[in-house]
């Protein structure tokens, strides 16, 4: 992987991080991977067991849940009780070190800022990984996980379950077959944030709840006092922990366009917002991505809206638009999706039946939420790769998070994907990565 170029102020710290990333943290010797029979079960460990972690564990209930980890024993109490025989940990590093020989795969269901450190350690141990969206907290981490998963040949899946939605999959087939013609413009929006953004750092140092290990919750992030403004749930808007509305919903609402059009490596990005804040994402933002020509596909402009901002409803032939949706505008037809994913409308009046001659090449499960896990489980056992594996999810996350680089820098940026740097505004490169605390490197 090419080391990104960043501003001189933080270059030394970044190079140290990059070097450590190559070496990794200390962990046990990688054990030979098991070969599975048709009816054998995976041994899965959960990194994050409360909240979304509970959902991910439930999604893998057909397998053996052999270890659980959570920094908040209160939030995880229900799952800790349900899987009473599984060993419990607060520190995923210790769990992976001690339980490595018993684990085949892990789920990662933690705040954004700990996704990469947990997933990277598991991958280096040869463990398969299911990681919640967004795949990572930074552009740099997305590139690292993509490379690591490929190098170690593990089965991976990102938790954007709409990727398994049958309507999404059919629209991918239709768009790639050319029913929309040349898609040159896409508009995507969300009603998020539904958590605080555009605020400063909270004051005071309230006592840490007895059930929370705050130091482990911070993980790779720099130390700061506990505050209920962060945990639970509200961390999403803080730059040190989350990725705002773009990261939280981008991997859902943007998935159809990124998949169908094979969007990756935007060349220029620019953003407008309610204001730049060093602590939190803005109350609203509009980010424009320009993707270059790729193969037979022509250049595509993608516009992202959040915080109540939306495109002109007339683009979808509507008087008003719902809280979430997307519009793909083509030279032959346009497609309007009035939700994160699901059934849409061809603006020409055409129906899917009019395109029944387009072959179906992607499996379309009835229970797509459950299938998203089963697809990964099958891949872990030697089946075909899951559709939202890190070769797809990594570049998608990288592109989405580049929008935050433009947003935070306040600049129109020109991106060099090969060298992994902003060409025209070197000061923006500081937002490509984070600085990790000792003991929490990739």
Keywords:
disordered N terminus; Rossmann fold; 442 residues; alpha/beta; six-stranded parallel β-sheet; nine-stranded mixed β-sheet
Short description:
This protein has helices at residues 8-23, 52-59, 77-82, 92-99, 115-124, 139-152, 166-176, 214-218, 244-253, 255-260, 368-380, 390-409; strands at 43-47, 64-69, 88-89, 105-108, 128-131, 156-158, 183-189, 268-273, 285-291, 300-306, 325-330, 334-337, 345-346, 413-416, 421-422. With 442 residues, it is α/β, with parallel strands linked by helices. The protein starts with 7 loop residues before the first helix and ends in a 20-residue tail after the last strand.
Q: Tally of extended strands?
A: 15
Instruction: Briefly note the structural class of the backbone.
Output: alpha/beta
N-to-C span: 14 Å
Fraction of residues in helix = 25-40%
The biggest beta sheet is recorded as: 9 strands, mixed
CATH class of the domain at 8-160 and 371-389: Alpha Beta
Shape: globular
Total helices: the number is 12
H-E order: HEHEHEHEHEHEHEHHHEEEEEEHHEE
CATH level-two architecture of the domain at 8-160 and 371-389:
3-Layer(aba) Sandwich
| Backbone CA Rg | 21 Å
Percent in strands: 15-25%
Overview of this structure, please?
The chain is an alpha/beta fold and about 450 residues long. The protein has a domain at about 10-160 and about 370-390: NAD(P)-binding Rossmann-like Domain (Rossmann fold). Helix content is about 30%, strand content about 15%. It is built from 12 helices and 15 strands. Strands 13-12-11-7-10-9-8-14-15 form a 9-stranded mixed β-sheet. The chain has a 6-stranded parallel β-sheet with strand order 3-2-1-4-5-6, with helices on both faces. α5 (about 115-125) runs parallel beside α6, α6 (about 140-150) runs antiparallel to α12 (about 390-410) and α9 (about 245-255) runs antiparallel to α12 (about 390-410). The chain starts with 7 loop residues before the first helix and ends in a 20-residue tail after the last strand. The relative contact order is 0.18. The model is unreliable at about 1-25 (pLDDT under 50).
């Amino acid at each position: 992987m090419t080391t990104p170029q960043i501003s001189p102020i933080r270059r030394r710290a970044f190079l140290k991080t990059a070097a450590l990333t190559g070496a990794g943290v200390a962990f046990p010797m990688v054990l030979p991977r098991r070969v599975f029979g048709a009816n054998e079960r995976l041994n899965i460990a959960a990194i994050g067991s409360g909240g979304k972690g509970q959902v991910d564990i439930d999604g893998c209930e057909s397998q053996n849940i052999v270890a659980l980890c959570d920094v908040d024993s209160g939030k995880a109490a229900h799952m800790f009780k349900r899987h009473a025989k599984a060993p419990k940990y607060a520190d995923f590093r210790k769990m992976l070190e001690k339980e490595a020989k018993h684990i085949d795969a892990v789920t990662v269901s933690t705040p954004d800022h700990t996704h990469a450190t947990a997933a990277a350690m598991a991958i280096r141990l040869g463990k398969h990984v299911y990681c919640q969206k967004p795949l990572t907290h930074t552009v740099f981490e997305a590139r690292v996980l993509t490379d690591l998963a490929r190098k170690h040949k593990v089965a991976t899946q990102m938790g954007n379950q709409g990727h398994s939605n049958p309507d999404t999959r059919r629209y991918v087939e239709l768009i790639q077959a050319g029913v929309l013609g040349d898609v040159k413009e896409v508009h995507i929006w969300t009603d998020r944030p539904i958590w605080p953004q555009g605020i400063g750092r909270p004051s005071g140092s309230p006592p840490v709840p007895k059930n929370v290990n705050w130091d482990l919750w911070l993980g790779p992030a720099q130390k700061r006092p506990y505050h209920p403004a962060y945990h639970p749930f509200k961390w999403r808007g803080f730059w040190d922990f989350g990725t705002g509305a773009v990261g939280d919903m981008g991997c859902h609402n943007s998935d159809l366009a990124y998949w169908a059009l094979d969007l990756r490596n935007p060349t220029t990005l620019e953003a407008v917002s309610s204001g730049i804040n060093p602590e939190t994402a803005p109350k609203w933002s509009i980010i424009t991505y320009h993707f270059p020509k790729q193969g037979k596909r022509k250049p595509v402009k993608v516009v992202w809206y959040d915080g109540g901002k939306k495109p002109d409803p007339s683009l979808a032939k509507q008087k008003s638009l719902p809280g979430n949706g997307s519009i793909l505008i083509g030279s032959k037809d346009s497609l309007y999706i009035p939700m994160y994913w699901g059934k849409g409308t061809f603006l020409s009046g055409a129906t899917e039946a009019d395109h029944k001659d387009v072959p179906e090449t992607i499996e379309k499960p009835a229970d797509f939420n459950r299938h998203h896990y089963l697809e990964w489980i099958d891949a872990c056992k030697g089946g075909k790769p899951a559709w939202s594996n890190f070769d797809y999810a990594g570049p998608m996350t990288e592109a989405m998070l580049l929008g935050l680089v433009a947003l935070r820098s306040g600049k129109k940026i020109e991106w060099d994907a090969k060298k992994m740097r902003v060409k025209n505004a070197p000061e923006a490169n500081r937002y490509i990565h984070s600085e990790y605390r000792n003991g929490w490197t990739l």
